[in-house]
TrEMBL record, chain A:
Any one annotated GO CC term: plasma membrane
One of the Pfam families matching this protein, by short name: ABC_tran
Annotated source species: Alteromonas macleodii (Pseudoalteromonas macleodii)
GO MF annotation: an example: ATP hydrolysis activity
SMART domains reported in the protein's UniProt record: AAA
Family the entry assigns: Belongs to the ABC transporter superfamily.
Keyword field: ATP-binding, Cell membrane, Membrane, Nucleotide-binding, Transport
Subcellular location: Cell inner membrane
Entry protein name: AAA domain protein
UniProtKB/TrEMBL annotation, chain B:
Gene3D superfamilies: MetI-like
Membrane topology of this protein: Multi-pass membrane protein
Name used for this protein in its record: Binding-protein-dependent transport system inner membrane component family protein
Homology family: Belongs to the binding-protein-dependent transport system permease family. OppBC subfamily.
UniProtKB/TrEMBL annotation, chain C:
Protein name: Binding-protein-dependent transport system inner membrane component family protein
Residues passing through the membrane, by range: 72-96, 108-128, 134-152, 191-216, 239-258
Membrane topology, as annotated: Multi-pass membrane protein
InterPro entries: BP-dependent_transpt_permease, MetI-like, MetI-like_sf
GO cellular component: plasma membrane
Keywords in alphabetical order: Cell membrane, Membrane, Transmembrane, Transmembrane helix, Transport
One Pfam family matching this protein: BPD_transp_1
Family affiliation: Belongs to the binding-protein-dependent transport system permease family.
GO function term, MF aspect, one: dipeptide transmembrane transporter activity
Species this chain originates from: Alteromonas macleodii (Pseudoalteromonas macleodii)
Predominant subcellular localization, coarse grouping: membrane
Localization (cell): Cell membrane
Amino acid sequence: MSQYIAIEHLSIYAQDTIIVEDLSLNLEQGETLTILGETGAGKSLLAQAIMGDLPSALKVTGNVLVNGVDMLRANRRECEQLWGRDIVMLPQEPWHSLSPMMKIRQQVAEVFRFTLGNGAREAQKSAKTQLDNLALKDDSDKVPSQLSGGMAQRVAFACASATNAPLFLADEPTKGLDPGRKHHIIEQLKQKANDGTLLTITHDVSVAEALGGKCMVLKNGKLVETGDTRKILSSPSSNYTKALIASAPQHWTATTKKTHRFAPLVSVNDLTIVRGNHTLFTGLSFSLGEGEIVGLCGDSGSGKTSLGDALLGLLPYQGNIAFHTLLHRYQTLKLYQDPPSSFADHTTLKSLIDDVIKLHNVSKKRADLLSAQLGLNQQLFERSASEVSGGELQRIALLRALLLRPKLLIADEPTSRLDPITSKAITHLLVDQCREENCTVLFISHDRTQLEKVCDRVIDLQSLTTSKAVI
Amino acid sequence: MRKILLQRLLQAVLMAWSVGTLTFIITRSLPGDMAYKIAAGRYGDDAVSTSAANAVAEELGLHRSAFEQYVSWMTDLASLELGNSLVTGAPIVVELQNQLSYTLVLAGLAILVSALIAFPLGIYSGIRCARKSENTPKSRASLFDKTALVFSTFVRSQPVFCLGLILIFIFALELNWLPVAGSSGFVYTILPVMTLGLSLAAISNRVIRNSTVNAVQSGYFHFAKIKGLSALEAFRCHALPNVVIPALAFMGIQLIGLIEGVIMIESLFAWPGIGHGLSHAVFARDITMLQGTALLMGTLFVLVNTLVDLSQYALDPRVRENLGHSQ
Amino acid sequence: MKTFALPVEKVIGFSLLMLLLLLALGEPVLLGTNGNQQNLKQVLEAPSAQHWLGTDQFGRDMLARISEGLRISLSLAALCVLSSSIIGMLTGVIAAWCRGWVDTTLNFIANTILALPGLVLILLFAALVPGSFIMLYLAISLVLAVEYFRLVRAITLPVVTGPALENSALMGFPKRYLFSKHIWPAIRLDVLSLAAFGASSSIIAMASVGFVYVGLKPPSPELGLMIVELFPYYHEAPWLLAQPIFTLFVLVLGFHLLSAKSDKTPRLNKFIFDSSSRLSKSNALERKL
């Protein structure tokens, strides 16, 4: 059987809605395939179909053959037999995949013990080695709640790769990771690609680029384009693929930067922030100009959010933060990383926006004009926050903030939870609208490339923590 | 860990203060002829006289000023001078010791019985429920699960003494298998223990069932199977600890409800433990006995809370971590 | 907006309670028999046309007594739940919102009340003034109020520290708005659930206290007291003893079903973790990436 995975006309339905439509693909042993597409049930369901792990409530038609085994018709027991030995999947949410009360070394050792049948002591040793390889040497006795997101991802990776299964499925392996971590995981995946057959699902074009091999582009469960990765990425034929590639920050056209001197809005001097027992940074000094778009980047835990909160007066700090113009509370606002949690639930968006309009006597005309500029149609407002997509909600959050004509807007990773195409749109909307309003933006992100394309200047918090730099 | 012990110590002090103060207020609120009634209760209606009533009043120090009395009352309490029973005249400490052993037997057996019922029932219900709804978002309850739910709701919706009465009707009065009440042998423990055990198990089995369903439907259980563990291995290593440890914590908290249930059950079955002592002391206005039993119950309560906290600290690494990082 | 599918348990619970309420309020209006009237010529009679539920050991009409017993239990439950919920909610929200020393003080008071098991506290209060409805009401309300306090505080804390409320505050909305738009929707459902549960707890507490002869005094037809008084006549007139037991059972069952959260045990009452840190730290598992 040279065809390791053979899928023919696979369609998956949830009641009457079609999620995956007429998909066919062939993967040979040792090949690498990347499935590119935005967040949607289609890609993960495809991985689950290959595993034989589809929810029984879904209707499926077509054929999925893995190494000759019909995964759709085989009974569950037979499929589960293959897990860990012939197929393994690295799931999307690493934290939820780790047992909360078990030490991570134990969780890796299990694989050696049960799947590979080693003795207990040998399993422990192998687990240690595995964790060492992923830079988790000193953390092997920790429990998942003590790990950061990146560390949990590495532990899950350790477990999955310990099985040495010839077919490796990775579901969004770099979601939400810092660029440094992302690079590390990609290296690990490349190793897997060399050792066996690798199928990666991602919305990140750079991951596809790094892995090479073959590529399939999916939109709403339908195949848009397929072929050799390099060829598709260098000369895409469909519009959707073009948009997807263009949405990666490295391909953005840089906006014109304002180089004139900005009148200072706020000056920060010798700032130190302490959270709990942990000093995030000391001796930070910088200033923000009126109408300036400033990017703030740094790895997670470096204190980017805390810095923003301190500027808004939400957090205690040591040092000096001085505003050069007297601003009302409502003129310094924040955009949040997780749009749904920044809106009150159980109530329509219309009523929330109306409350803002009533509170500050905003003119209806301005509200309508802004809505139009942000591409929001009136029907959206009739829903509640939980019934609207992340991207649309972030636009409404932007509308809500702009209605008050803020002078300072702290955008705390506003696009990291969004799909790449939406993320690009929101980033540009944010920057364009704020320039028009002459509002200062502190754009916080862990993606430096994104910031360099749209901001007037970029502050790197990481490189400032040890030195007392003035920018 | 020290933080836990300090917190509980503070609770013990507060508890003792509450009991002491409340019983003191009760003492002060005794109408004049109460001393007479207590003397009558002690010596018999015929033998009582004004002097006897005065002696009782003297004993309780009803003639002194309120503040003086309070200070001396609390000092006695602090030095564990619990005095004698106003009804029987016996030293409180001795009475309490007798009662305590009975209560501990009852409570210990009841916990055991409830664990023996709740764990198998809960885990099995959970597995049946989860298996029936393999991979579907909503859990559809199996027949077994639904029956267990009905049983639990039925038992839980009654005051514990009603349950006791029902068991008495069935087993003692109708079937004549067991004695109704009393304490002179092992066979007398069966009904009270069963009553308490069942009422505890009715709630804890649902908690265990829910934990089991959550564990079996969780991401980590699923990933364990993906890693290559068999369903049984995954259940043993991943699901079970995440079910048992929180369940033990819950049952520890249930012990608190047990202390209250003991009051009712001991009264119903005439089991001479602390609960029985407490309710009779309230009825007979035996103030010193009331204080003693309430104090003892309160102490047990604090002890149980402490044990629960410590065991959670030892077993659940998340608790250790939370307490380690202050605030 | 989503439509509400009425869960079966709540419907059953509600109907049961309505039936009992009907009995409690309807009987005096429609029949008006005197439940205290003794008639020693008609003791321990079986149900008949004249006495629908029979008569007790003093010849008193059982239907009237059961109905009055229901009125006592329901009025106690209503009073206790009303006062404890208002006090508990107010203090819970204030503690969570203000934090700092206000929170510490309120927590301290709550812990003092909770230092004793609830029933012991209630018995002590009952011993203060025996046979007094007010004392029982005070004691039960106190214990219930603390449970409300802890629940409301635990729910309000993450809301008050969360992004939605923080944003509204930044935008300049007054405290009144912050409460009605953010805090109240979060506590509303649980408060109602706890109300039903609290009602059943207070009824059980009163019956328990009556059962050990420390509650309301005879000839009051309190349900717990009735049970213990009728127990000796079990053999001659089993239908008598069954009545208060059954009534109590249906009453408590009704409230339980009303408070139940479909298939899950109510996550309220005493089984909430002690330290606030534990509950809010459970959200710390969702760490920022």
